[in-house]
Input
Amino acid sequence: MLSSARRTKDQRADVIVVGSGLAGLSAAHRIAEAGLSVAVLEASGRPGGRMVTDQVDGFLLDRSGRLLTTGSMELTRHAGLSSLVLRPFSAGVLVRSGGRSRRMPELRSTRGALTTVRALAHAARAPRSDALDQARLTAALNRLAGTPTGRTLARPERSAAEALSSRGLPARTVDGFLRPLLAALLGDPELTTSSHCADLALRGYARGRLCLPAGGASALPDLLAAALPPDTVCTGVRAVSAATTSVTTADHGVLGCRAVVVATDARSASELLPGLRVPDFHPATVLHHTAEAAPTEEPALFLDADRRGPVSHTAVVSATDPSRTPPGRPLITSTVLGPVSAEPIGVLDKAARRQLAELYGTCTEDWELIGAHHDPEAVPAMPAPHDFQRPVRLLSGLYVCGDHRDTSSVEGALISGRRAADALLGDFGLAAAPSAPAAAAA
Output
């Protein structure tokens, strides 16, 4: 990895990729596999885009609160991520609803009948209404898990909030579980997201288990960057304009090539490519606390359906991935979504501590805030109607990719990079390696 564009100037690359987030690195990996030389330009000092992990006093603190699932085909089948280790949360989630906490059952198997029986057995000690609600929910999610992508996308499209109210599930199930779960998965607390995107997110939840990448979110871009030829990623190089055969940089002049892929965030892409649409965004803030003792040793994800505070979801991530903390020090990570996330960190921290005290059933006054990160453009909005495959080929030799071109997710970024690479390789008359269908992997 370089800190300048010396290699790019001295040894002209076939393709320049602007941006080293997941989309750019995914595109670069696929292009390099086809035998073309690639230079990836990154304005900051390290690759990753939003998938960055900060090191603070021995703690690994993610800037993003995005959740992954073990059922993601893009994560498990991408050649550049073959050594990625996923640390799953415990089965299901713990939900605070109606003033009490309860565990929703594991919803992984597509064998609906068997899983429904297990759900009923799991809920046997709960009130009868709870047991029936969980069985209905399990059956509904298992049906969704087994539904092909085409049929899922053929449903009438509306907002996720509107769709939830028309699925025939009890209001207490919708409000007490599905709404907070979708808010966490989509980064959208008001559920204005397309119902198609929501269905695919729920299907991913039903097919796998929520998880974290071992070693922090930066493990993904680090692995992708390491899988590229040496010195492919050039850090500290800021692009100011892009054309079909060159990229103009702020401090390194004009870099020539045969094709350019713009793989930055949506706003930066619009500055490099005037006329490109900039979507709305969902903001988020991630808070990291440590304490003398962990509030729980269980690797569980907690959701607050009661909305008693600003936190959407929280977990003792050190219980899920011990590599993120010094020995004997717990790490509690909480994510705040929506407009409230823009409040001053001190205000958010105070309100979050009160809420976390209820969720974890412990005193949080002596917890130490060791990190916080606010991103006003954390998640590109995906309202209905949502185009799952916005064009990535602008001209022969000029391409654009990112989660703003597919779905606003880790999988969407990887898929978008793959689509841009395939379009480029097609224009070059080169065949790309076979891969999973884009929509199915979303």
User: Anything to note?
Assistant: Confidence is low (pLDDT under 50) at residues 1-9, 106-128, 437-442. Residues 128-145 form the longest helix (18 residues).
